[in-house]
Amino acid sequence: MEPLTIKGLNHALIVIFNKDYGYEQYRHSLIKRLESNPKLFWGSPVMFKGPGLRELAYNDLLELQRICLEHGMILDNMHPTATAPVPRDVFLRRHVRSGQCVNADGSVLVWGDVHEGAEIHAGQDIVILGKLAGLAHAGCYGNPAGIIFTLEMASRHIRIARMNLAIDDLSGSGIPTVAFIEDGLIKTRSYRTKEPIELMFKPNG
Predict the structure, then answer these.
(1) Residue-averaged pLDDT of the chain
(2) Buried b or exposed e, range 73-82, using 16+ CB within 10 angstroms
(3) Residues 39 and 123 reside in one and the same domain
């Protein structure tokens, strides 16, 4: 039996971690399967299951999920048996340039621009104190309460949890914008400093 078994279920992919294997074997098997057919996996929701997960450390799970993110997959869950430490936030005082990818299990704050071709993946919120032109994926481990805030929205594609939003009209992009999930959809609106944040959107807990 291979270290991993991949099955399709309700338009998502289930990666089953079979028992009696170690992290490096899972990692090698995952990369091999993803690179064998990139078009099949790109954009697909993925869920981790199976008895082998019980033997993996939390940081090992994060690394395996990061590999899925780098191959364009959408994370659907964290396995409930994993004991998660306090999420680690990432603070960057620079631009994130094309080709660069930032990953965090907590939130990400960027004091600068996120260029087209760059990617930000955060388990919680993403705050860009500059222009967002690249891909931002908040709540990337399946958290629908994640939000994306940017001083200027110039990205044509953002994600929150399992949801995707293609942005065709950027005519009003030169103003601070917040994106969030409400009623099962990603919505965007201008950020107004005088309006209480709880009135701007309803957090999805």
Answers:
(1) 83
(2) bbbbebbeeb
(3) no
Cα-based distances in Å from 181 to 142, 144, 146, 176: 12, 6, 8, 17
At 43-97, the pLDDT tens digits run 788 888 888 888 888 778 878 888 888 888 877 654 444 444 456 788 999 999 9
Residue that is written with structure tokens 């869950």 in the block: 77
Check whether residue 146 and residue 179 sit in a common domain: yes
- Say if strands 12-17 and 4-9 run parallel, antiparallel, or are unpaired: antiparallel
* 196 and 103 within one domain: yes
Least Cα distance to 141 among 98, 188, 97, 88 occurs for 88
Count of structural domains, the chain: 2
Taking the C-alpha atoms of residue 22 and residue 75, their distance in angstroms, rounded to an integer, is 22
